[in-house]
């Protein structure tokens, strides 16, 4: 089973995706496809999303039971923590804290 969400993408891409999956709410698609079709759909979405945002969740044989793919939203990134995929959301506070925890780039300062 796969779940895909699309935001701010061209209507033609949404129509193409509805050929393979069911749109249960605007921009939310659910279906059961093979791994090959799932990967091809993801490639098509990434190729035609332009400035839109896309997410794909699908069944995987790992601790969580699923895997996540993200595209187009620079505020959200995937973080692998001991085999678990987590979504990190960057906000203004993240930018402040990042400067405090980043190691110095120049090794001579150590």
Automatic annotation (TrEMBL):
Q: Which InterPro entries match?
A: CRISPR-assoc_prot_Cas2_sub (IPR010152)
Q: Which CDD domains match?
A: Cas2_I-E (cd09755)
Domain of life (superkingdom)? Bacteria
Pfam families according to UniProt: Cas_Cas2CT1978 (PF09707)
Q: Which NCBIfam families match?
A: cas_CT1978
> What name does the UniProt record give this protein?
CRISPR-associated protein Cas2
- The organism named in the record is Deinococcus soli
């Amino acid at each position: 089973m796969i779940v895909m969400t699309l935001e701010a993408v061209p209507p033609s891409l949404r129509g193409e995706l509805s050929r393979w999956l069911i749109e249960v709410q605007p921009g939310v698609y659910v279906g059961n496809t093979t791994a090959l079709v799932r990967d091809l759909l993801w490639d098509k979405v990434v190729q035609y999303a332009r400035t839109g945002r896309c997410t794909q969740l699908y069944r995987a044989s790992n601790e969580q039971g699923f895997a996540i793919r993200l595209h187009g939203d620079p505020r959200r990134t995937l973080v692998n923590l001991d085999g678990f995929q987590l979504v990190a959301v960057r906000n203004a506070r993240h930018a402040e804290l990042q400067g405090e925890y980043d190691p110095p780039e120049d090794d001579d300062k150590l």
